[in-house]
Predict the 3D structure of the following.
Amino acid sequence: MTEFFVNLGLSYEAAWFTATIAGILLIALPLMLSVAMIIYVDRKVLGAIMMRRGPNVVGPFGLLQSFADGLKVFLQETIIPSAANKGLFLLAPIITFTVALAAWAVIPFNSGAVLANINVGLLYVLAISSLGVYGVVIAGWASNSKYPFYSAMRAAAQMISYEVSIGFILVCVVLWAGTFNMNGIIEAQRGHGLGVVNGFFFNPLMFPMWVMFFISSLAETARTPFDLTEAESELVAGYQTEYSSMSFALFWLGEYANILLMCMLNAILFFGGWLPPFEWEPLYLVPGWIWLFAKTFFFFFLFSWIWATVPRYRYDQLMRLGWKVFLPMSLFFIVVISGYLMATGHFL
C-alpha cells in the first residue's frame, strides 16, 4: 500500500504514514460495523433458542436495532458518581476500547492481508489481550462502589487464571507450527490432517488443546458460563454498574470486539484461518477472507448457543477449572507434544 501512495507523488515517509492510517481505518471501521451487527446476531440467536422474536422492528428484519441503541446511548447524559475518581472513571472505558482494537493489528484476513506482519504476532496478541483487565479493574475501583469493586476483583482473578492456561496452549501451537507469525501458523495447517484437512484440530494431540482454548476464550471474555464479573443476580451489572451514555457503550464495543477476536483466534490457530477446510483446488476460488469470516461466525454462534443454554458456574468452580484442570493438562500436553515432535525429528 505504501508503494501505491508513493506512485501518487508522496514522499516515502508521507506514503508510509498515509498507508498506515488507511490500513488502520480499513480494519477499525469495518470492525465497528461488525460489532454492531454481531450484537444483533447475538440477540437473534438468543431469541430463536428461547423461542422469541428478537429485534424485528427497527429497520428491515430489525437490522438497525444496534444503531438505534447506539444513538440512544450517544444522546444520554454521562453521569459520574460524586464520590468516584473522575479521571480514572472516564479513562477505564477508553482503555478497554483501545486495547480491544489494538490486538487486531496482527490478525491476517488473507494471505499477506495484515496490518503488521510481525514475527512475534502471537506474543503481541497475548500481551495486548492481557492489558484488557486494566480497564475493568480501574472501572471497578474508580466507581467507589461495593459491587463494581467486587466485580473488578473477580475479573482480575478470572482473566489472569485463564491467561496462564491460554499461554501454555499457545506454546503447543507454536511448537507444531515452528513460528510465532500468524501467517506462518496458518500455513503450517495446510493439509495437516491426513494431507487433506487444513487445521490443527484434526490432530489428536491438538484437538484437546482447541477444546481448552475455546473454553478459556469464554472465560477470558467473561461470557456464559463464566460471566461472574457481570452476574446480575449478585453484582447488579458488575464493573459497569455506575456507567452510562458513551462510556457504557465503549465497554460494550470493547467487549464484543474481544469476543470477535477470540472467535477469530480459534479459527486462525486451530481451523486453518483463511485456508479452506479441505485441500481441494476449487475451494481456493473462494476468497480467503470469506473462509475466515465464516469460521469466525461459526464460533460466535457457539458462543451465543452456550450463553442461551449453559447455567453460570460458581466462582469456586471457575477457579478450580482453570487452576486444577486446564493448567495441569496444558503442561502435560506441552511435554507430550514436544516429546512427540522430538521423536519424529520435527525439530531437526
User: Anything to note?
Assistant: Residues 192 and 198 are 6 Å apart (CA to CA). The chain has two domains: 1-75, 76-343.
